[in-house]
Amino acid sequence: MVIDRDITPQLRKAARQFPAVTLTGPRQSGKSTLCRAVFPKLPYANLEAPDIRAFATDDPRAFLAQFPKGAIIDEVQRCPDLPSYLQGIIDDDPKPGRWILTGSQNLTLLESVSQSLAGRSAVLHLLPLARNEILRFKRHPKRLDETLIAGGYPRIFDQKLDPSDWLRSYVATYIERDVRTISNVGDLATFQRFIELCAGRTAQLLNYSALAGDCGISQPSAKAWLSILETSFIAFRLPPFHSNLRKRLVKMPKLHFYDSGLVCWLLGIRTPEQLRSHPLRGAIFETWVVSEIYKHRMNRGESGGLSYYRDRDAAEADLIIEHPNRLVLVEAKSTQTTSTNLFAGANRVRGLLTESSPSCDVVVVYGGEKAQQRSDAKLVPWANLHESKWIA
Questions:
Q1: Please, what's the b/e burial string for 188-197 (b: 16 or more CB within 10 A of its CB; e: otherwise)?
Q2: In what helix (H) or strand (E) does residue 367 lie, and over which residues does it extend?
Q3: Which of 49, 64, 130, 256 is least enclosed, having the fewest CB within 10 Å?
Q4: Are 162 and 149 in contact (CB under 8 A)?
Q5: DSSP for 256-323?
Q6: CB of 5 within 8 A of CB of 34?
């Protein structure tokens, strides 16, 4: 089943403006399916296939000559020299929308594109499904804990698969194939342990020294391995908020994963019952909220503008969305019960930030079902987060 993806308008717009469009994202996020659906008239070539990759690598000119009107070239990072040969073809005929390139390794692909196709290719990122995209499948999780465990990889919903079974294969494939391709990681068992430790630190401050010590690796290795997770769109760092306040702000980034289902699987959580009583349920929910907002903004072509707040006096807000004329302070609370205490932390931060920002709104996303508009804050049920206009 092919569903509409929220990024589609941005993809079409880019194809009207640039000779090439580069779409990156994690494996199995739906890049190939989306591009073939949006550009059905373009021929398709997948460089994962050994014979096609060998042709593109050994004779790139002849390979590209097969497609006089352009093509969709999948997993283009498997042939990193190809964009260099594509440059001349585009310069000879810069007609928009002829070449659609996809890849699942951000750093490798973007280095190749930026060197050869600078100014010739738009770059977009397709992440796992956002909640509103998941709702387009006939069968989708309706409860919060089921949603967190399922995550957002399309094949789980398209083929009605058990998330644990699919994610087990996904992690094995990722470690055995992609990690070897991206970097020369000698001990894959230790690398899997590293990913599991990172999952246990989702929504927490990123302390490289502690992470390296727990994993039994050096601090430089921990930094390099985290870069691999970022390169392959597994995890990301949320930067701390910067301002002219006199408060001493924490400067470490927070660690988040793009997919809550992957976090649950790495932590050994297989059922909603396990998740309900798990000590990291709140952190997993926070990661889900942050990643949902991240996806929502990225699907609309908005990058940056997200951070978190924490100072040395323990005042904190899980997420700050920076708009041109205002800030939105977001707190994620997995509880289903409403109370005034839900707003205390963000309201405290608002009191600090009003010195430098003309307008600060407070939003609490929680695990309950009833929305509330209070005089000083807004309460948003988790299931309605995708309907919120304050995100973008």
A1: eeebbebbbb
A2: none
A3: 49
A4: no
A5: EES-HHHHHHHTT--SHHHHHT-TTHHHHHHHHHHHHHHHHHHTTT----EEEEEBTTS-EEEEEEE-
A6: yes
Put simply, whether the predicted model's pTM sits higher than 0.90 gets the answer yes
| Residue 119, φ and ψ in degrees, nearest 5 | 80, -5
| Residue 4: partners with Cβ closer than 8 Å, 6 or more residues away | 133, 136
Question: What gap in Å lies between CA 285 and CA 288, rounded to an integer?
Answer: 5
**pLDDT tens per residue across span 338-349:** 888 899 999 999
Structural domains in the chain plus CATH codes = 8-125 (3.40.50.300), 131-237+253-280 (no CATH)
What CA–CA distance (Å, rounded) separates 270 from 148?
11
Dist CA 61 CA 335 (whole Å): 59
Q: Is 51 left (phi over 0), alpha (psi -120 to 50) or beta?
A: alpha
Task: Report whether 301 contacts 10 (CB < 8 A).
Answer: yes
